[in-house]
Amino acid sequence: MTPCGFVPKQLLLAVIEPAAQGMDQNALIGLLLIAALACGVLGIVFFPAMVAFGRGHTYRWPILVITTFFGWTLIGWVAALVWAVMPQGQYRGGSR
Fold this sequence. Notes:
The protein is mainly α. The protein is built from five helices and no strands. It has helices at residues 9-20, 25-45, 47-55, 60-70, 74-85.
């Protein structure tokens, strides 16, 4: 499994190998740790959108937009997550 989980191994090696030619081992390990941390942060930030797409949510695209622009704030992230896990197709209002 590659650091981000979706990058083909050959592509990852093609990018890292030339960069590693002139680097010492500690610098390369630091670069890989930063890449892994960035993938983890992006995974956490886009978690509400992944939940929405995984559930086939009706409003998955607006949830992705909210996550993209406001996911870095706690309020935007929680709002997108709550929207992504809410039941679909049910009337949630009061009496008419």
